[in-house]
Amino acid sequence: MVFSSGQPKGEITLLIEGKADSPSKAPSEDELEHELRDLISKGHSISTSVKIVAEGTAVKRKDVYALALRLFAKPDETEESSNS
């Protein structure tokens, strides 16, 4: 480094800007369904699968969970949750 007025004394603070967030394209419902089916077929629970898919996409966890319930919930489970 070259300093015009001599060697600096003390500490130097260097600020570095992080990578700018790039806008993510939300995956289609078919893509989400494919990811959920893949994870569930590998033995993950619905809850864990939803968490993994939501963390890896720009889709809210509650939206992924609603899709998972429509796809994988047994008829008894959806009736019970709607009665609560």
UniProtKB/TrEMBL annotation:
Keyword Nucleus recorded: no
Protein's GO biological process: methylation
Domain called RsmI HTH: residue spans: 27-71
Domain of life: Eukaryota
GO MF annotations, alphabetized: methyltransferase activity
Keyword terms of this UniProt record: Methyltransferase, Transferase
Keyword Methyltransferase: yes
Pfam family, one: RsmI_C
Protein name: 16S rRNA (Cytidine1402-2'-O)-methyltransferase
